[in-house]
Amino acid sequence: MKIPPYKDRIIYQIYPLSFKDSNNDGIGDINGIISELPYLKSLGIGIIWLSPIYDSPMHDNGYDIRDYYKINPMFGTMDDFDNLLKKANELDIKIVMDLVINHTSNEHKWFKEALSNPNSKYRNYYIFEKGKNGKVPNNWQSAFSGTCWEKVPNEDDMYYMHLYTKEQPDLNYKNEEVIKEVENILEFYLKKGVYGFRCDVINQIYKTSLKNGKFRLFGRGKEYYESQPMNHVILKRLQDEVIKKYGAFLVGETSNVTPEIGNIFLKNCELDMFFEFEHSFCDENKLLPILKKKFKPKNLIKPIFKWQESVPWLGVYLENHDQRRSVSRYGSDKYYKESAKALSVFLLSLKGTIFIYEGEEIGMTDYKNYSYEDLNDCASISTINTAMRLLHLSRDKVFKMINETINRDHARSPMQWDNTNNAGFNNGTKTWLKVNENYKDGINVKDELNDPNSILHFYKKMISFRNSSEALKFGEFNRVKSNKNVAKFIRKFNDSTLLIIVNLSSKNIKDKDVVDKNILINTESNILNGELKPYQAIIREID
Length: 543
Ligand code: GLC
Ligand code: CA
Hints:
Layout: H1 5-8, E1 11-14, H2 16-19, H3 30-35, H4 37-43, E2 47-50, E3 54-55, E4 67-71, H5 78-90, E5 94-99, H6 109-116, E6 128-130, E7 149-151, E8 158-161, H7 176-192, E9 196-199, H8 229-246, E10 249-253, H9 259-267, E11 273-275, H10 297-310, E12 315-316, H11 326-330, H12 336-348, E13 353-357, H13 378-391, H14 395-403, H15 445-449, H16 455-467, H17 470-474, E14 476-479, E15 486-493, E16 496-503, E17 509-510, E18 519-522, E19 531-532, E20 537-542
Parallel strand pairs: 1-2, 1-13, 2-5, 5-9, 9-10, 10-11, 12-13
Antiparallel strand pairs: 3-4, 6-8, 7-8, 14-15, 15-16, 16-20, 17-19, 18-20
The structure holds alpha-D-glucopyranose and calcium ion.
């Protein structure tokens, strides 16, 4: 049996704005990425997922595309991108791009044409709708709060839909021509040698009807636009027309996906895998995500285990550019290093394709000293405005709330490479978003490379362990009952059986299987028989 690369390799997500700035203008770029390919190789990863690098006015940091066939000049040129593909290929690293096709930028030529000329064919590329009784066409909400309808300037009672910001008008997937355009985009990059795509909000592209959604505080309307039957048909079509020809790979960002729907994506070969988001809500209030819920290990372990058991394969992650940093959310200040290592054992022992987000491997944390004026994230800004209006809270109060929950800037601060100016992200005077000052306290690549006990060294060890373990890569998953603060499970493939035990709390916990026998991985230097230390994690080979 030939194993596809995505089942055999670890994926590393790069947020290009913040990875490495080669020309000191404050913005990460493609040449910066090229310069760090040897670092990524030495980490042991085999695939890079690049957040969007296409031409964009950057209202949503590139998730608003103005031209799919052009590289954003702030990141470089198409030649630079070709060079990245070539250099990565020389190191046997594959490149996955972000495919953002639910919407374009409002500065895309299709949308500009649709606005300026209502009779043009581009009108039907988007979702325009007449208002109802002097109001917006329906009660659906934008994911970033407020209505998803924006009034068309200079036209009477006409609106367009945007499930994200008003600068991101949704495309109309009832229009055959839109699907053709997407096929052309896919083909363009696959011909260049791109390995595949991470498909942005891919289960929202098809809107079955525009009826009012049932009342919810958040996500109103989703029963008509999330995971609709036609969504499957369109994905299947993209596979048959383009993706299969290139043996390319697709991972879907699928909000509110259920095991039932996830299994359809997989069975029909619409996606190779998808991301579930259930576990990432474990410390947020379900109805109103800006409200924090106290983190409890069992609330993270439970959904992760559920998904491990519900689907044959999935994309596994603790961090991405939309989430706070995992060690700040699920770890501990007091046991900072220990908890980062424990999370690494947990993540890298699970079934599926492992995604590591830039900086996760050195234990980057959320900001501590960060104010409203520093805010860049469009979702946070929009949510703050809505919450101030609807809940009559002060700006400072809402800012404090979102800063502990949904603020996406936390994971977007520049990568910490060393302890020089701007954490070695560049050698200039500015950075597009503040650098987290804790790069001076040893949280940076260079210092961690010099410290054998660092988080980075541990990650490298754990990555290399996974890369050479058939049980971790291909084995089945079985949970084992344990203390509520402990993730305990078995991965088994042919003759190899591994027992993983991860303490996600600052308590000492007894466990009969913590014995000094056939230990392959240990976050601590020893084993106290029968007891896990705070955030200790071990992997043992068992019969
Ligand atoms: C996805 C992206 C996010 C973006 C949104 C709209 O959720 O991960 O960053 O804002 O889609 O494209
Ligand atoms: Ca730059």
